[in-house]
Design a protein that fits this description.
The chain is mostly helical and 166 residues long. It has one domain. 66% of the residues lie in helices and 0% in strands. The protein is built from 9 helices and no strands.
Length: 166
Amino acid sequence: MERMLATPADAEIILKLYELRTEAVMRQARAWVTGEFWPKTVEEFYAIYEDPKEPHNPWLRQVITYWEMAAAMVLHGAVSAELFVDCNGEGFFLLAKFAPILETIREKNPGFLTKTGELVNRFSAAAQRYEAVLKRLEATRLRRTGQPAQEQYFYAPKQDQPDSAS
């Protein structure tokens, strides 16, 4: 990715994307999709995604299409890729969250999270962000199943400081 400075227009788009994420229903939808919805199988995923009578169906679709729209803006040059990657991690989180069943989801829905995936494939900063999120999510999945996870630090952990009072 060639390094280019973001423009004020890029910043406005990023701020608008942030503002849209703070809308009340969108906040509820994002909280449910990122925090509560952990399908282990494609059947669990499609039980929500394909059932318009399921109360969480609109939330799942809203969050997925929001991040795909945002990724498409980057891919089409409407906003700086570097600025977008620096300011937004949730789309990469979703791609990583569904990674274990993504191939199977795409058998039925080939377009599922393809724009976010294309960001990861096209921009090294996006690939690095995705890989970091993927590692954290793998540890989260292990904790959710009760298995011990190895701690992985992306920054050096703080060393205990000697107590100056002793």
